[in-house]
Amino acid sequence: MTFEEAGQHLSLALEAAVSRYGAMVRQVGRKYRLDESDLDEVMQEVRIRLWRARGTSEMVGEANTSYIYRTASTAALDVLRRRRARQADRHDPIEEGPVAVLSAPTPDPHGVLEGSELASKVAQAIETIAESRRPAVRMHLAGYPREEIASLMGWTEAKTRNLLYRGLADLRERLAQEGIGWDTTEA
Amino acid sequence: MGHDGGVKVTEAQLKEAYQAHLARSRRDRASCPSPEAIQALVRREGDEASRLATLDHVMSCGDCRTELDLLRTVEEAGQRSGAVAAPGRRRWMMPAALAATLLLAVGLGRLVLKPAEDTVRSGDTGRVELIAPGAEVPAGSPVSFAWRPVEGASRYRLEVLTPSGDLAIEAETHDTALTSDSAARLAPGSYQWWVIALSPAPGPRSELRRLRVIAQ
Question: Which of B3, B42, B59 is facing A179, going by the closest CB pair?
Fold first, then answer.
């Protein structure tokens, strides 16, 4: 069944509730810069599940928001499982080409190598950080704001700041041993 | 990289290098945490050590990070729509009728069941018949759960609850057995578990069965 066909078979009330939830999913998904097609795949799965469940649950008829949310949660898990299974089937070769991350303002023939080497050294240095601090450092370097780290882990702002500062100090020390000095003024 | 006198980088360059490393890192997905584990991280379910371990992997794996963001999106949309409380304030989120049934089942369990009597009970809430595990399992080991099939069920949801009613483990399967690696991380103590048949809407469920995790 296609997305459109499933939608046509849902009651108007239920379709309205699903559409409202779907709009929220898209709104939040944009914040996380998710691919629209990923979100569409989840919402298509939600509609199909609700259509299949029609008549089997009074909650479906009542267009219960909580039920739609729970359906979306399990649908998302199934989408991820299917995607992983497809990835396992494909056996794509892993490309490990150099990455230009430290390209100088003027073209530098060694810029590509330097970027790749720095990335590798940073990744190795992070592995040496204490386990309790490491995820916060990874999130910070991945571009997540401190508030988001605190929110995801359920930490207070003070605990998050403490773990992050100590973890970054560990990283700085390790990189210094590798001959990499680090100007820190942002964290 | 110029190692003669060392190099200086800015934090922006470090982030750029790390993010480029993340973008091109492709792992064997077999080593990735399960989607359920990532969802537990999003919902702040389970102990902090487990969630830290999951987060550590997720933040070093481009594929898992995308999966995390997808699951966060579904969760956050649920919060915004009022369907679920934000993590940390989450308790036993379910419809009132189901909550009433749970309270009734717990009450009946206390009144009627002795700890050693983990026999399957029949009745409105007992249509999923539980088989294993027994009343006690050792701490630190995965636990295998099993139950009898229910006609018309397309999936089953296993839920393990803490004494306060919080979800400690939530997993779904097409099968009538499930070995939970997350159970190895349960702290010693008393829990309850049950299985709900899905078709895919929630249907018949089992009794609430006690599960004591014994320290080794």
Answer: B3
